[in-house]
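If I may wish for something, please walk me through the protein I am sending here so I can picture the backbone:
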Amino acid sequence: MESKLVLTYTPDKKDYVKASRALAKKTTLFIILAVVLALGVVASAVILLMPSIENPTWKNIAIAVIWVGVFYVVYYLVLIPIQLSRAYKKNDFMKMERRFTITDAKLLMEIGEKSQELDWEHLRKVIYDGGLYLMVYKEDSPVYPFIHERAFTDDAEKEAFLNFLKEKSIPIQ
């Protein structure tokens, strides 16, 4: 007989923000862009603070780089959460209870009356970030379902979920 685990929970708007940040922190392009911008901001600060650099072009470029860096931080820390909060308020689908039925063969994700079967072979990795498990599926189009720890009724359910991932050789980052 096939082993089975059923997890049910309803996400709140903070879960969506946390999932978005978890994905960003583990995305190579995001990390590269953040490092390049951080280096650019530091170099720009040095240019602006050095009185020996009198070239106005360099100072204008430095100011522009600092503004881009500030925008990047504000966008990531403020605007994305605001956008997700507004979407959560307007979209009833985001507030619906999720039911994940995990079997040896597949993961069945049900949200309201809609359901989607996800094969284990397309699950690339699971990102764990502060109580949230974000699953990264890559098939025809990427899917990013997430399960918050509050979905587990006890430690045994959480351990069973982690064992499913381990048995399928799915890395947890």
Residues 152 and 158 are 6 Å apart (CA to CA). The radius of gyration is 21 Å. DSSP finds five helices and seven strands in the chain.
